[in-house]
Amino acid sequence: MQIIYTAIKRKSNGKIILKDYKYNVDASNYFYPASTVKLPIAVLALEKLNKMKEVDVNTVFTVDNDTTKLSFSDDLRKIFAVSSNEASNDFYEFMGRDYINTKLKEKGLKQVQINHRLSTPNSGASQTKKITFYKKDGEQITIPSVGDSKIEPLKLNKIVKGKGYIENDKLINSPMDFSRKNYLPLETLHGIMKRIIFPNNFSSKERFDLSKENRELLLYDMQNLPRNAGYNPKEFYDGYCKFFMFGDTKDPIPSSIKIYNKVGDAYGTLVDCAYIIDEVNHVEFILSATLLVNEDQIFNDGIYEYDKVGLPFLAQLGRAFYDLNLKEKNKNRF
After folding, report:
1. What is the share, in percent, of the chain residues with pLDDT greater than 70?
2. Which end of the chain is more exposed for a tag (fewer CB within 10 A), N or C?
3. By three-state DSSP, how is residue 189 classified?
4. Is the pTM of this model over 0.90?
């Protein structure tokens, strides 16, 4: 388990002070980042789109001659409302892993290695798929396929995990090797969130270069709930992608509380990285945490203690920090 909490203080002159507190944080101890990689992929895709003058978030596109026409605005909505793998993979194809990793490192986010797409055959393929944009005047703009460098195996602590794993419906009685998987340590993920929410606390080199409209769209989608994004609330309840505070309940999230976040869950690992703000009670903080819940130490068997241990813990952790901030606000009021 690793936790990072950022206290936020707003000065009367408009300056924002961020102070970090860390528990057990160590980037050299590997955990599987699961769907949290969709956060840097989404924001970098928007940044790249920002530099293209003839297309925008509503311009439709296809991937590799597929007939399905998509748009960045639709894919963003799906990534944050229900954590769509397909939508994130569209953005991956638009950039490729070399571009993603280079851009993150240029922003001072050195500890990262995005290696593969999510939940798709041949996910680590070096060749990206071409993207074709279709302008309203009928003109087509093609982003050609590029060849990325080969995946460099990760050399980290705890990169092999457990005592066995399932592959092709068979149990392999040896630890699972994660060395060719994605690597997004908690500090890097937390740093991405800080750059999105508080860009003025960073140098121009360290920020994401987004237009005002695209940043507003990103922020809207990050806090949006499935029921407001066109999904059935019985299946995709409010806490479906909001692990902190609400991951253990299907009750509606109060309208005063906004959670700008990205979650991940896979291979027994749960992760959430969130900026939480209660506009009524003037509470705000950033919280990131990851924990592994895999009692039988068998990976890829679908048997993990998400509902029994992981989600209740993360929900309670979020509530504990919310309550801490609420007490601080009330104390300062008198």
Report:
1. 99
2. C
3. helix
4. yes
User: How large is the average pLDDT for residues 292-297?
Assistant: 98
Inter-residue contact 276 to 257 (CB < 8 Å): yes
Of 129, 111, 91, the residue nearest 33 (C-alpha): 111
Name residue 36's amino acid.
T
The Cα–Cα gap between 41 and 71 comes to: 15
Q: What is the pLDDT of residues 174-192, one digit of tens each?
A: 999 999 999 999 999 999 9
- Token representation of residue 210: 């987004």
Determine the pLDDT at residue 65.
82
Compute CA distances 203 → 106, 200, 285, 295, 314, whole Å. 12, 7, 21, 44, 32
d(C-alpha 271, C-alpha 273), whole Å: 7
Question: Residues 285, 6: contact at Cβ < 8 Å?
Answer: yes
Instruction: Kindly tell me if the per-residue pLDDT of 87 is higher than 70.
Output: yes
Residue position matching structure tokens 């969709």: 38
**Contact criterion met (CB below 8 Å) for 55 and 135:** yes
